[in-house]
């Protein structure tokens, strides 16, 4: 599973950091960014700043996306790899989860 933030929509309230400070961080500009291997992915603007999510953080990242007031946390699920992830979320969140299945498409 991977995650990214659309910084243009972020309100900077920090709820995501409260839910999972290993994956989300607020930088000096007051906006949230995703973190991978301890490094903020601070090249905002789209899926180029994706961060891989460790299995132990999957649940809290999905929860953060559900409560994000800016509705700006986006999740990518790799269907074969992430088959055991329960991403059955409310309809408000559904548009921000992209399920990919490259094996099935091949
Ligand atoms: S919860 Fe959403 S709006 Fe709030 S700081 Fe995190 S990404 Fe930004």
Task: Please explain how this structure is put together.
The protein is of the alpha+beta class and 106 residues long. It has a single domain (2-105), classed as Alpha-Beta Plaits (2-Layer Sandwich), CATH 3.30.70.20. It has helices spanning 15-19, 58-67, 91-94, 102-105, and strands at 2-5, 24-26, 32-36, 39-40, 51-52, 73-78, 97-100. The chain is globular. The structure holds iron/sulfur cluster. The site of iron/sulfur cluster (SF4) has 15 residues, from helix 1. The site of iron/sulfur cluster has 15 residues, from helix 1.
Please describe the biggest sheet, giving its number of strands, its sense, and whether it closes into a barrel: 4 strands, mixed
Radius of gyration: 13 Å
Report how far the terminal alpha carbons are from each other.
20 Å
Number of beta-strand segments: 7
Unreliable runs: none
| Helix-strand topology string | EHEEEEHEHEH
Structural class: alpha+beta
The share of residues in extended strands comes to 15-25%
The CATH topology label is Alpha-Beta Plaits
